Amino acid sequence: MRRSITTAAVAASLLAPAASAQDITSKSCVNGLFMVVARGTNEQPGPGVTGLIAERIADRIKDSDVVALDYPATYTDPLYTESVDDGTKEMASVIKNYTDNCPDGKVAVFGYSQGAHVASNVFCGGNGGAFDSDAPLPKQLVDDHVISIELFGDPSHVANTTYDIGTSKNDGIFQRPNITACENYSFMKSYCDTGDVFCDSGSNSAVHGSYVQHYGTEVVSNVLKAWNKATGGDVDTDGGAPFPGRASGNVTSTPEATSSATKSTAATSTQTRTQETGTQTSESGSGGSGGDKPGAAIGLSAVGSLVVGAPLMLLAMLSVM
């Protein structure tokens, strides 16, 4: 099994210079599932909290790869708009380069918070306005290679779509204007619950950090079923034990035991180097939430690609999104 996932405990020793998506070649091909994971704002470089889901899937599907998207995942340096735009282009390049070099390859995508916004752009098209208007990936490429798109707490969430999962009835704070390109992807799911500050424009900051804990095993099972359907495989589709961790505040504490030493590599968007590590025990980062309901306090206006007029309280809140 090949992996590029790493825990915060070993991340510092494994980090290597970020490799460009252009470095993906036929040597990057795997017989299993190629999983791209985009972390939330200010989570430590690496796959973030949703990487735990991808890791469990990699335990079931032999010769799979978990790739942490290499992008800023910031709110102010660079600005959220620029970070999302950078991540969108990087993810699209990673997927396109992998499928170009691996014509039989199967891909799954996971995104949390800002990472979900990035992934939504890749498959639905960019938001426009203060954000770039990137074209979505070609439908034929997606139909041929992508078996699952899993989004959690997407700030660009649109309520009542065909791919919505959860209790939310409201749009996100960066509601996307058009979902035509992605609304019929049966393998795309966007998890958003009532009260989420970002995807539901709500006021309950705790909701945003709860998706892996509440839906993680369901997602694992769904992706494994999608793999079997796409490949004729027969992997066990049980989602496993509930994930005990949750993203909250400035720290994401997500203990996940593994049974033996596993391979880990640097947290970049391509394979860099591997190192044997012992049992993984925790994943730390920030990907939770903070602050109160943004409501009308979101003073956003587009000046080129800039977001201006956000109150200091909102800046503090979004910095831990």
TrEMBL record:
One of its GO terms (molecular function) is carboxylic ester hydrolase activity. The chain crosses the membrane at residues 296-318. Keywords: Disulfide bond, Hydrolase, Membrane, Signal, Transmembrane, Transmembrane helix. Residues 235-293 are annotated as: Disordered. Residues 1-21 form the signal peptide. Residues 252-284 have a biased composition (Low complexity). Gene3D superfamilies: alpha/beta hydrolase. It comes from the Eukaryota. This is Acetylxylan esterase. It comes from Sarocladium strictum (Black bundle disease fungus).
